[in-house]
Amino acid sequence: MPFVIIISSSVTDEMTIIKEGFQLFPRNFSWTAYQFLFQHPEDLLRAYGVTIAVTVTGTVGGLLITSLLAYTLSRKEFIFRNPLNFYVFFTMLFNGGLVPYYILVANVYDLKGSLLALILPLMVNAWNVLIMRTFFVQVPEALVEAARIEGSGEYRIFFSIMVPLSTPVFATIGLFLVMSYWNDWFQALLFIDDRAKLPLQYLLYNILRNAIEVASLSRVGGQTINTIMPTESLKMATVVITVAPMTIVFLSIQRYFVRGITVGSVKG
């Protein structure tokens, strides 16, 4: 029902929302919010492309690095296992703060203005590493020992045994990464000045912020600009534009996730 109300409100006349509130079905149909958003469709499409590229690259890279680190931490024979586990866990308790973070990314790594500034900071998360490590620990050690007896190295064991048996955790962590990259706008606020490199969320944030400021500060013919500036319906339209692709991804990953759990339970 909330999604229906969001879609309905995005195609409802602004004055109707102001006077009657949000409705389950639009009373006075209007495309004004979408027309406002698509005044410059090339900017919106470019932002979609940036967000998709960042999300795909970050998710694939994040899954690879997270899984390799988690597999290493799950091996009992790794002599630095406990110190490295503590090091990863420690990052969940403290952080350096915003100013050191900005200096590190922008000055030390010189990533300001680069799309890498949108990808690298979110790629590895301690919580994701610990979740995946816990799953790897539960894989029977006999499988790993049998592979070693057959002459398999660690990379062969990881990609041929651990990865196929870990479909549920890969789907889960992948979903976390996708949502993290798709919804992120804060990295762009800090590090991106070029409008051509703005991700979708930050571009829509700017559009909505500008519309609200104009609506609150301007007057047209003695009436507030809210009578023609679709601020409320614009909020709902931005939600529709950003949520729709993620809904499709979530449903696809959900089916894959359930299938992975079923296969794992049968093999177990």
TrEMBL record:
One BP annotation, GO: transmembrane transport
Cellular component terms per the entry's GO annotation: plasma membrane
Ranges that cross the membrane: 47-72, 84-103, 115-136, 157-182, 236-258
Topological relation to the membrane, as annotated: Multi-pass membrane protein
Domain of life: Bacteria
First-listed, main subcellular location of the protein, grouped into a coarse class: membrane
Keyword Cell membrane: yes
Keyword terms: Cell membrane, Membrane, Transmembrane, Transmembrane helix, Transport
Compartments reported by the entry: Cell membrane
Entry-linked InterPro entries: MetI-like, MetI-like_sf
Residue stretches making up the ABC transmembrane type-1 domain: 48-252
One Pfam family named in its UniProt record: BPD_transp_1
Matches recorded under PROSITE patterns: ABC_TM1 (PS50928)
Family statement drawn from the similarity comment of this UniProt entry: Belongs to the binding-protein-dependent transport system permease family.
Protein name: Sugar ABC transporter permease
